[in-house]
UniProtKB/TrEMBL annotation:
Protein name: Uncharacterized protein LOC115633998 isoform X2
Keyword Signal: yes
Residue ranges of domain Protein TsetseEP in the record: 21-132
One Pfam family recorded for the sequence: DUF725
Key words, A-Z: Signal
Signal peptide, first to last residue: 1-28
Amino acid sequence: MLAINQSETRSLQFLCLIGFFMAVAADASNTYTSSYTLCEQTANDTMIELTIDEKLERMQIEQGAGAVCDNLAQCSAIADDLDYMKCIREIGNKNLDILVEIHFNATSAHTRLRTDYDEVHQTFLLCTLEAQQVYVNSVRLAYNELLECRAQMENCSNSIF
């Protein structure tokens, strides 16, 4: 029969405790990874649900810019200088209205989009911060348990002698 002395028993117990700590730490890491992935997915889903339709806004701006170019192209086809200047004057006011509308729409869309992006980013940061806090607390609890068990082992071995 194999005899194990007191020192070897303590070493085995301590190795078991280290194994326990490593398992709990690995579990905490896995939980953090899952939580972080969920935070990313939530942020991505939120990006899909923005308050504005940025593609529609962009299309409308591009249509307005195209209309300005088309208006100017109509005038450039006129050979007579007097008629050309008259066309530019008439089209100029129309183009100015279009450009003011483009400016207003772009500024409004930019502001709303920036607000949405900031909100998504803030939600993501808060979510990941919570996941980090859960991870740190889990590892801290495991470490405290490890220290407590180690202290109990030392007390038991001291009381035997």
